[in-house]
Amino acid sequence: MTTQPIPVVVLAGFLGAGKTTLLNHLLRGARGTRIGVMVNDFGDIGIDAMTVAGQVGSTVSLGNGCLCCAVDASELDTYLEVLTRPELRLDVIVIEASGLAEPQELVRMLLASDNPRAVYGGLVEVVDAAEFTTTRTRHPETDRHLAVADLVVLNKADRVAPAELAGIRETVAGLATRAAVVETAHGRIDPELLFDRVVPDDEIAGQMSIEDILYGDEDTHAHPHAAYDTVSLGTAVPLHPRRLMAFLDTRPEGLYRVKGFVDFGAADPEHRYTVHAVGPFLRFFPEPWPAGEERLTRLVLIGRGVDAGALRGELAGCEQNGAEDEPDEQSMWGVLRYVPQPDEAPVP
Fold it and tell me: At 36, is the secondary structure helix, strand, or coil?
């Protein structure tokens, strides 16, 4: 059973953008991942049980290890408490916001939550590429919503001519300056953009599961519009906390997620640090090194339009260079600023 907080992802976008389609895609692609869903939109989620429940306060099982609640936004913290109970063993929670909701208000509520088992997992804004211009005219707040997004899914890209799509993407990227932007059709984004897939105990990583076979025609085709970049680092050399923080503080636009474990060596020999970053949000979670485990730093960076070679070079530059480069006792202060403390106000 994991001791790490559960990421809570906010899924927003105006009516008809494709939020529910994207959510259904994530649920079908959950495989061994247990997803908790909070629905504030009451859309046509592809589960009969939710349609039947259809009322605030109901919680139903989706039959694949996932749970779904129909909630009012004012009860967000109450249902976070329900879905983060250890016995549910959820790996991620997704909140589908109402098409008329103010997503930044949901984000503020999450950041202000004192639930130690939940951590902000990012704001995903779904945009209807085919109706983008019309949506901006009808809903001027679109620009404001895009400005606070961590990931923008430019959906229905298959319904727009390439030249027009390029212009829309340029406009969206200019408004969502801190976000990665991915283009897709039918809401088919790789779940790895939002959460880590959990491989069941009886399944070998990479093998086809029953769900792969059932949904293979839909989910395993290549979707060029959904491409993204992944950069991995694995090293036995401890990282210097000051240089890693300098890298994280200046990480490039389009770098959506940073995840993994960090070894800071002599700066804190007793602990490894789980790093969780989404958009500008950053947290570290220290825990004792597991007995007998090799002390390695393992990081994965996920984004769109990033320079993989440059990122690898910058991460390599964070490695400690022998005894003369050993960090001093103040070097961890920047890291510890992002370690959650009891009754601590959220870091902006």
Answer: strand
pTM exceeds 0.85: no
Which helix (H) or strand (E) segment holds residue 144: the answer is helix 142-147
What pLDDT, in 10s, does the model give residues 64-75? 556 666 666 667
Which pLDDT score is estimated for 64? 52
* Burial of residue 219, with CB atoms counted within 10 A of its CB: 0-12 exposed, 13-18 middle, 19 or more buried: middle
Tell me, rounded to whole angstroms, the distance of Cα 82 from its chain centroid: 21
Residue 46 pLDDT greater than 50, yes or no: no
160 vs 130, 155, 172, 263, 301, CA distance in Å?
6, 10, 15, 46, 30
Query: Residue 152's beta-bridge partner residues?
Result: 125, 181
Distance between CA atoms of residues 257 and 185, nearest Å: 22
**C-alpha distances out from residue 265 to 138, 163, 245, Å:** 54, 51, 15
Rounded distance between C-alpha atoms, residue 172 and residue 182, angstroms: 11
CA angle 216, 221, 224 (to 5 degrees): 155
Residues 37 and 66: beta-carbon distance below 8 Å? yes
Q: What is the rounded CA–CA span in Å between residue 239 and residue 223?
A: 36
End-to-end distance of the chain based on CA atoms, in angstroms? 30
Residue 61 clears pLDDT 70, i.e. is over it: no
pLDDT, position 57: 47
Residue 96 identity (one-letter amino acid):
E
Helix, strand counts (H, E) of the chain: 11, 13
Render pLDDT for 115-148 as a digit per residue (tens, 0 to 9).
Answer: 889 999 999 999 999 999 999 998 889 999 999 9
The encoded tokens of residue 123 equal: 């704001």
> Distances in Å between the alpha carbon of 30 and those of 23, 161, 203, 263?
10, 32, 14, 30
Instruction: Give me the residues paired with residue 10 across strands.
Output: 95, 123
**Kind of pairing between the strands at 271-278 and 255-262:** antiparallel
